[in-house]
Amino acid sequence: MENLASTTTLHNGVKMPWFGLGVFKVEEGEQVENSVRMAINAGYKSIDTAAVYRNEEGVGKAIKESDVPREELFITSKVWNSEQGYESTLKAFDESMQKLGLDYLDLYLIHWPVKGKYVDTWKALEKLYKDGKVRAIGVSNFHIHHLKDIFEIAEVKPMVNQVEYHPKLSQVELVKFCKENEIQFEAWSPLMQGQLLDNEVLQEIADAHQKSVAQVILRWDLQNGVVTIPKSVKEHRIKENADIFNFELSAEEMEKINSLNENKRVGSDPDNFNF
Predict the structure, then answer these.
(1) Where's the NADP-dependent oxidoreductase domain (predicted)?
(2) Which of 50, 110, 113, 272 is most deeply packed, by most CB within 10 A?
């Protein structure tokens, strides 16, 4: 983990950057185009979007206009709940690709485990993977029992599980299960939507390293072996978030951050989501 180009290797051999830009709630058009452009110019290689964010076109435009070769970038999108099922997922994928203007995706995820549908949706992702349209497939917001359901029918195991993860929700059992099953853990909302930025314990650690609280949290992610994708639309913040490769948290500091866990969510619980 030396810089923004540093990668983890997924269980199928595909290399995925440890750090990327999330674009949840970033407006389609100029705002998302600028955000992605600034990130790529700052050295980011990974961009994470989703059909439901309604900004895939802007993401694709910024990618197309960048000087970075497509094969050096890692682009993720997700199939939304209302499009789940076998045929409808294949159709949703085509629509996403049309909006993005790309020939292939690096990672495609099931956004939420919609009861009665996510198994068929997984079969559609396996087809996309076998057809070479996606380099890696995975899930988002899956608990252990959802993953076990997939294992029962899967010809290809999920390569990634992207879930809400931050110091107040460290998902210890899920992290352990994913590691044991070679599923790369990825954090969304790593900064708990800004709710952790005035935490005293984190501030103390940040001061000791002359870093921001955000940088300490994102470094904690990486040292826990978790891929992280903080969102920002401000250039200075995009650069600051990525400035985490020149310091290391001690074992004691890591433990202090681990102890902040309260199993507290800012998003929905996947078992009680209004699908």
Answers:
(1) 30-262
(2) 110
Domain layout of the chain by residue ranges:
7-261
Q: Which of 44, 53, 118, 165 is catalytic?
A: 53
- Residue 127's contacts (CB-CB under 8 Å, 6 or more residues apart) are 90
Cα–Cα nearest to 167, from 239, 219, 232, 231: 219
Distance, in Å, from the CA atom of 245 to the CA atom of 65, rounded to the nearest integer, reads 28
**pLDDT higher than 90, residue 273:** no
d(CA 95, CA 89): 10
Token pair for 216 = 């300490």
Quote the CA–CA distance of 247 and 211 in Å, as a whole number.
9
Average pLDDT over residues 2-25: 97
Note the pTM of the prediction, 2 decimals. Answer: 0.97
| Calpha distance 207→271 (Å, rounded) | 38
Active site residue 165: no
Q: Which of 49, 63, 62, 79 is nearest to 188 (CA)?
A: 49
Length of the chain: 275
